[in-house]
Amino acid sequence: VYANNATFTFNGGTLSGNKARRYGGAININEGSTMILNGTCTISGNQAGHGGGISQEAGACNMELSSEGITIQNNTAIGCYEEKKEIQVIDGNNVVVYVESTKGYDYSEGNGGGLFIEKGTLTISGGKITGNKANGSGGGIALRSERLSGDITLNVSGNVEIANNIANNDRSDE
């Protein structure tokens, strides 16, 4: 599921076995979107570069997990190659030309096995985030604002279980 400037409400069901090369194996919300998970929802067995289960990729978004029946489990963030772009501006005789070219690739470790958040608010008031794996940081949840400037807020309350998630890079060398 991809949402851009949209509201996505999932009131029950299963999203499993999905793959994305870069962001959000099952769900990727973007640019001012809102995601609400209610009822009995399972997000499992998905894979992506970042946010194996769910990713909030760019722009301020709101994500709400509001039921004890929500399970985010056994998802994997495997990492991906990010394009390095170069933009040249050529201004001649009042004609402006923008030339964009790929200048190679950087490898980015997979962050957020269960959930990956770059900007916005994540509110968790119920559910389980278990058994997820990240080849980088945040086996269960990764909050990262390196690429985007802005605030990230994580609110956790109620009966929430975050357990048995694995991150292969503990960042102890940075």
Task: Count the beta strands.
Answer: 20
> Class by helix and strand content?
mainly beta
Order of helical and strand elements? EEEEEEEEEEEEEEEEEEEE
Largest sheet: 8 strands, parallel
Give the amount of beta strand, in percent: over 45%
- Average pLDDT level: 81
Overall description:
This protein is mainly beta. Helix content is 0%, strand content 61%. Strands 2, 3, 6, 7, 10, 11, 16 and 19 form an 8-stranded parallel beta sheet that branches. Strands 1-5-9-15-18 form a 5-stranded parallel beta sheet, with no helix packed on it. Strands 4-8-12-17-20 form a 5-stranded parallel beta sheet, with no helix packed on it. Residues 95-105 have low confidence and may be disordered.
What key phrases describe this protein's structure?
0% helix, five-stranded parallel sheet, 174 residues, eight-stranded parallel sheet, mainly beta
